[in-house]
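User: Hello! I'm new to structural biology and keep hearing that structure can be predicted from sequence alone. Could you demonstrate with Thioredoxin domain-containing protein? Please show me the input and the output so I can see what each looks like.

Assistant: Of course. The first part below is the input, the amino acid sequence of Thioredoxin domain-containing protein. The second part is the output, the predicted structure written as tokens.
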Amino acid sequence: MKGIRKLSLAFIICLSFGCKQKAVIEEVIIPEKNEVTFFVDNYSDSPIRIRFFRSIADSLEADYYAYQGKDTLYIPIYQPEVVLISHKSIYSDTLYVAKGDSIRVLLPQSGEAFQLSGGKKSISTSSSKQAYLDSLYRFYTISNNKFKPIEINSDFEKINLGFPLTLNKDLLKTNPDAFNLLVEGLLDKLSEQRIEQEGTSGLSDLNELKLDLEKRMAFYRLMSLLRWTKSQEIRSKAFSSDLFTSEFIINSRFGMGYFQNFIIQVVLEGKTDRSRSMEYINYKEAYDKLPNHMPEGELLKLGRETSLFKMVEYKEPYVEISDYLNEYMMTYQDSTFLEEFTEQFLLGYEKQINEKVGLNLLKADGSVIRFQDILIQHKGKVIYIDYWASWCAPCIEAMPYAEALRKEYANEDIVFVYLSSDNDQSAWKKAAEKYGLSNYENSFLSLNHSNSEFIKALQIQSIPRYLIYDANGRLVEKNAPGPKDPSIKEMLEKYIEAQD
């Protein structure tokens, strides 16, 4: 029976009366939990990230973090999933998990790799057809040994992708027929249907995941061939495949990736701006052009919602985002989306966000105060400012030390103030709750961080950043030590004693 597991319990009535009586078997139905449990022992000084690949229609959070020490994460899951377990100094590991799984993740202090138990490290071997496609793809690609192996490093991951690949153009000239077989084989994979198994409602869950992964690999291989050849034929066939029916793309685990490629390659015709510090994709233009490429319906609506979220990610002006949001609401009148979007990206605080004078701060209860009010309110006390964000790994690493410092000086004339530069209000609230700041009266979200002349004057271009104001409200330390630095106590005591 799907969704439950049966547990047979034998109650043996023997006790002091002997064991001649028969066992009584009672069947107890225990609901299966729609979650996977991660038991984490992290003995490093940096967080472990557990990243799920989610579908375009899935609103669940896709990234989870475990910091120093022991942690237990209960993550909702409704179908088998691929998870990437990563750390900034350890090569990432992939696991395949299903609901009800319990995974143990150990990272020793001096470890060079994760120690994992539970889940699956691999799923069933590839079919002969898949093996044929793999060999053809390798046949037409070559490693460029002139460059270093591609290694991704960030605050949360380290991935070695090997040497960059490119198309063997000489081989393509001499063997075009085999190349065409490769393209057709990859396109066939995108349209491959699940085969119903006798006596079941479909493929086993893990085999279904295997097919989804093969489709995903086929799609991104086609995107590589498209990038190398600029073939309009590959583009048109790939994006007119069964992969892009509304039902499939909305329900697919990897639908968001397919859909974003559709926006870039079809709607924007492959145009991106690489002249900036990060590749820029014009989702305002995408929003305007989407109706030219798909009829009215759920997929177009999702495309417009995706474009709105991406506008915020690329830090488009809030006034322009508001204009697009108004246009969206005129079309769909979706109050649920409006509430989520406004809550997440602070459009309800438009005036405070765009203000250049001073610093506007959002409190957990939704009210707004000015930074100057904090200085006035706490005049006569030293003020230690901690500028941080939920996505900043060094900021998060310092939080346990910040809490210890706050407790140590609880009876002194000093106030610890936490200012988050998050764009996403919900991310700030979740992080604040995790680190004991949700009910702390001096924890705020900086609304106009990007526009404030105050921030520009202080040259706060990276975080974490720590400031100290003396008892008279004067900024005396523009680059104070962080809470992990032993010298911070001596500095704080110097300004506390100066009040006496």
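User: So the tokens describe the shape?

Assistant: Right, they're a compact way of writing down the 3D structure. Reading them back into a model, for example: The chain has 17 helices and 21 strands.
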